[in-house]
Amino acid sequence: MDTLNNLFLIIAAAIRGLFADPHSVWADITMDVVAFLAVIIIIVLAALVLILLERKVAGWTSQRPGPNRLGPRGWFQTIADALKLMGKEDVTPANADRLIFKVAPMIMFSLPLMTLAVIPYGKGMSPIDLDLGIFYFLAISALSTLALLMAGWGSNNKYSLLGGMRAVAQMISYEIPLIFSLLGVVMLTESLSLTKIVEAQGVVPFIVLQPLAFVIYIIAGIAEVNRAPFDLVEADQEVVAGPFTEYTGLRWGLFFLGEYGNMTAVSALAATVFLGGWQGPAILPGWIWFWLKTGLVIFFMMWVRWTFPRMRIDHLMHFAWKWLLPLSILNILLTGLGIYIYQLIPRIGG
Amino acid sequence: MFGKGLATGLKITLKRMLQPNITEFYPDVKADLPKTVRSSMGLEPEKCISCNLCAMACPNKVIELTSEKDENNKKVLKTYNMDVGRCLFCGLCTEACPTKALKVTQEYENAVYHPEHMQWDMIKRAKEVSRKEEKE
């Protein structure tokens, strides 16, 4: 059990052990490259599994089997789709702003790469353990607005631009309640480090202490990754496919990877901050607990997507500024009061 | 209460998710057709007396048949062609048939790649059907 729990740590130590001096610069660089590859593998695997799972969940909600032709019960479908995507022609519109058009998907893909690097996947298993983990995560994930706006602008297409503008309006609005909902947890743990936040949840996960913050985080998180019912950025019936309209082949695939990577990152942060991360009964290794909790959040997001219709754009804005923001500020106030009262108790007793 | 409708919606979709599929797995499992479906024609050439009543009953001139006389001066069916692209499967021909040699069947996989394949040689088709039945 212990071996299984520390499986990846043992592998990492083994790779480090290949060097004469395990703490030389070259060993450190090698470990960084390995961590980088591991995160890429996580994103690609997540996208492969999640795209299929999304279609399966979509099917199940309407009592269909979903894709069921390729492989056992259709589980190889995404591999075929990915291969098809690679074979597609790469089209750049004639009047596009070429540099911006081509850089946008790369930025979109690099963001989950950067955010997933700070998540603690198990005890001592963060690829990079930052003291400012949450801060870094939020700062980076906010940049996906930029990628979408660049794609919208660079395509030189009115629908793309509209989608890009919507992305800016929506994601900046929802960024604020998202950050405020995490502040309650930061106040409780007095730390911005994700590792410390997970360690603080040994007894009770923070969803018990911060239920309101969790609800706000999930809603704002769904809006942040542009999923239904908040998918106004790529609302097919209104703006074709928003910023993605002009993209083909692998560039579009990068956007898709980035999108599912972002979704994984947001769910992973929810699992880390509210559901206790890798903490769990010792019947399973910590990293499996982590992925189970992340999977649960992802499934909830899919369930919501295939249940609710899209919101109207003005309702979306009202909801963020008039409901989520005041509620998240209220949550901070209540958390502060709770901490104050908790600190008062021993003084009254003494 | 605010959000009650959302919870109801989630409950309904979850219930749907747990219920069995209602999809018919078509090519693997054949559909259970209602008795009244008329989607193809079948001929039993040995019953046919070449009376030509079917061709005369047809509103679209789908059926064309030829016959020859045998040594007993009896008509024997030689060719029986249907231009099934014009056929409505109305069944008037089967009603006209005095020996019930012609029947409406429920075969429905009738798609073909070329228009000329819609000219059905009914005698040949009858042989194919009997061969298939023998195999089964």
Tell me the radius of gyration of chain B.
23 Å
Task: Give the topology string of chain B: H per helix, E per strand.
Answer: HEHEEHEEH
Q: Poorly predicted ranges of chain A (pLDDT <50, ≥5 residues)?
A: none
Gyration radius from CA atoms of chain A, angstroms: 21 Å
Instruction: Provide the β-strand percentage band of chain A.
Output: under 5%
**Shape, principal axes of CA atoms of chain B:** elongated
Number of discrete helical segments of chain B: 4
Quick check: average pLDDT of chain B? 87
Integer count of domains of chain A: 1
Approximately how much helix is present in the residues of chain B? 25-40%
Oligomer: heterodimer
Number of DSSP helical runs of chain A: 15
Largest sheet data of chain A: none
Overall mean pLDDT of chain A stands at 86
- What is the global morphology of chain A? globular
Q: How helix-rich are the residues of chain A, as a percent range?
A: 55-70%
What is the CATH topology descriptor of chain B?
A: Alpha-Beta Plaits
CATH class of chain B: Alpha Beta
How far do the termini of chain A sit from each other?
A: 45 Å
